[in-house]
Design a protein that fits this description.
- The protein is of the alpha+beta class and 239 residues long.
- The chain contains 13 helices and 5 strands.
- It has a 5-stranded antiparallel β-sheet with strand order 2-1-5-4-3, with helices on both faces.
- A hairpin with a 7-residue loop joins strand 4 and strand 5.
- The longest helix is centred in the middle third of the chain and has 22 residues, at 145-166.
Length: 239
């Protein structure tokens, strides 16, 4: 593939007005490298909320996607676990080591659905929960380093354009805290307990807990420390 062709694919995605068109453009390119399945989504909210749903998710394999989410595989998927820890792309085999019995069952199920090999590009952005572009193949992959780099670059493009077209990035950027919510988080950041915060603000510690529960849902976080860190990252409170 020439650099000019690569730019053409990127332009095609950037100029698209429909998320499905972006997905299809990237899938066509991936298939040319021996990849059969494509999954693009922001799923971080599901990791801390068992009943949550991904902010956006697209795939060309709806049957496996249903099995994946119905069985809660997102919580044990070794590729997701590795994608949460690193920023670089990787092949499935790098994640499929030292597996638990539950993870071994997941890998067996994935292979039975056709995913013999694959390539994953973690997506970590300043705004919002993490996500990934995951590509699966029916046969072992043999992809050159330059093609891996191209896949990684186009994955970030496809993910970003789809996210923007669906408005999830914009929803995060326009989020605002009330004065009370900002004060509660600031006091948490200073190490205050719920009881201490309640005493300072003349509200019950149960009200403080409710504030934190609501903020955790809005910011897609797992606990009070994670909530404070995310609020700081988004510039909603000062460090």
């Amino acid at each position: 593939m020439t650099f000019k062709t690569l730019l053409g694919i990127a332009d095609q995605m950037y100029n698209a007005t429909d998320p499905d068109a972006v997905f299809d453009t990237f899938l066509d390119y991936a298939k040319g490298l021996g990849l059969d399945f494509l999954f693009i989504g922001r799923w971080g909210f599901m990791l801390s909320h068992p009943q949550g749903e991904p902010q956006f998710f697209r795939s060309n394999m709806p049957e496996w996607a249903k099995v994946y989410f119905d069985n809660g595989y997102i919580h044990i998927d070794p590729c997701i676990h590795l994608a949460m820890r690193i920023n670089r792309a990787f092949f499935y085999k790098e994640a499929f080591v030292d597996l638990t019995p539950a993870q071994e069952k997941f890998v067996k199920d994935a292979r039975e659905h056709g995913m013999v090999d694959g390539f994953v590009v973690p997506i970590h952005r300043r705004l919002g929960a993490p996500g990934a572009v995951t590509m699966g193949a029916k046969a072992p992959l043999d992809i050159s380093k330059i093609d891996c780099l191209r896949l990684e670059m186009l994955s970030h493009m496809a993910y970003g354009v789809i996210d923007e077209l669906q408005g999830t990035d914009q929803q995060l950027q326009i989020m605002r805290l009330t004065d009370r919510e900002r004060t509660v988080l600031t006091l948490v950041a200073r190490g205050k307990t719920n009881w201490e915060i309640g005493a300072i603000l003349s509200i019950s510690e149960y009200s403080v807990r409710d504030y934190l529960k609501t903020l955790s849902k809005q910011l897609e976080t797992a606990n009070r420390t994670h909530t404070v860190v995310r609020a700081m990252q988004l510039g909603l409170i000062s460090p």
